[in-house]
Amino acid sequence: MASWVGAVVFCAWAGFSFSMNRVPDEFTAMQPTVEPASFYILDRRVCRTGEWTRGAIVRFRPPGVGSASVPFAAARIVAVAGDKVTIHAGGVVVNGQPLHWDGFAPPLNEEMPELRVPAGRLLLLADNGAVASEKAVDTRAFGMIPDYRVEGVLIPF
Fold it and tell me: What is the pTM of this model?
């Protein structure tokens, strides 16, 4: 009996903490890291802890997004509360250090003066700088995203 109850509790916890999802066909902002029509696991545990990690790809609900055709947005956490950030043509600098992640292409031909990320906010940028510049679905379009709008960490596979 105890093993059966344990299995039910584990399945409930796993269902609440993780889900498998498909990336919409038209979603190109995170290429090449997250390809359209690919699958990913959404890990919701970080939303309960609030322990945000620079470089993590998150799924979030920005203002104005949520229709059936665009149910969510995804972007990389570039800076967390307290970080100083500057964006210049072809580069992002956080706390004096240039950012380099596999697959991350900073926004092209865009400038943002140094700013500090306030408490409870995240600075999110899409990996595909060229696409994101034309049709930004990240901090450049919506400002810094309140951390409560993050639905979880996106793990592509």
Answer: 0.78
